[in-house]
Input
Amino acid sequence: MKAPMTSLAAVLALPALVLAGAANAQGVAEFYAGKRLVIVVGSAAGSGYDAYARLLSRHLGAHIPGAPQIVVQNMPGGGGLTAANYLYNIAVANGTVIGGLQRGLLISPLVMPEGVKYDVGKFRWLGSTNAETGVVAAWHTAPHRSIADVMTTEMVVGGSGPQTDSETTPRAYNRILGAKFRVVSGYESTSPILLAMERGEVQGIGNSSWSNWTTGFARYLKDGQVRLLLQSGLDRNPDLPDVPMALDLAKTPEARQSLELLLAPNKIGRPFVAPPGAPADRVAALQAAFEATMRDPALLAEAKAQNMEISPVTGGYIEQTAARLTAFPADVVKSAAAAIQP
Output
């Protein structure tokens, strides 16, 4: 008799669950109606992170119950660390502030913890617009025609902060692969580095997102002004079949493991988060809205027109990635941390 009773109880509970779900949805809609939602971006205006945040901002509101107005606020500094610390410790956690973080901050608590005032596992991950591949690019007047040349001849590259990919990646290539990059820091984002390349201040960039080169920087490739020497990432990018992979240059299993840890954030590309403590029903609504926006024909059409890749990653996958990173052996973490120190 117990099984039928259990089934009957479940059936009787269904209307209550439906009503509870409807009440939550109504509550979320009432909360967001007439409000403004701010996307805090941890990089400068004109950067790749900024471009994806602004694309998202033009379509996300239509999928959030209550249809709030959405604005983007840039908060560069510390290679994105300023924004991450702000979102974790200061931002109001009621669902009206979310953030677009730089992906390298996912591993900063492990390999570069100085100044980190957040716990990756406590952020409420909404998802990512796309996975990323990083590339080493040399200006056409530089003597480096392949990555092999960088192993013998110093290459001066621009950097946008000690915790950004543009600096940590070439430092890792120096110490793990034996490359000879010299990083000149102080540029606000990738765009000023490219201007520095044109002026002859630097010879290239040690890591920049491939999506930047297919969108805002496409003319440099079209006009043959840069050469791509190396690609980072855990998987080969199908757009770059002839560009060697950094992982393939690792000479030992230990070196490869260190690179795998450092390059793992590429898989989460352009992540968006809500602060810890945000109400569960609003976080769920934001996650659902993010996923719906990634399928929105209007967003996809705009992204296509601008050559912006949309290959969404779920918030759940980012949470799993963060958990996997903490499982790397301590000696690998120590080696990877040593490789990227300024």
Notes: The radius of gyration is 22 Å. Residues 32 and 66 are 5 Å apart (CA to CA).
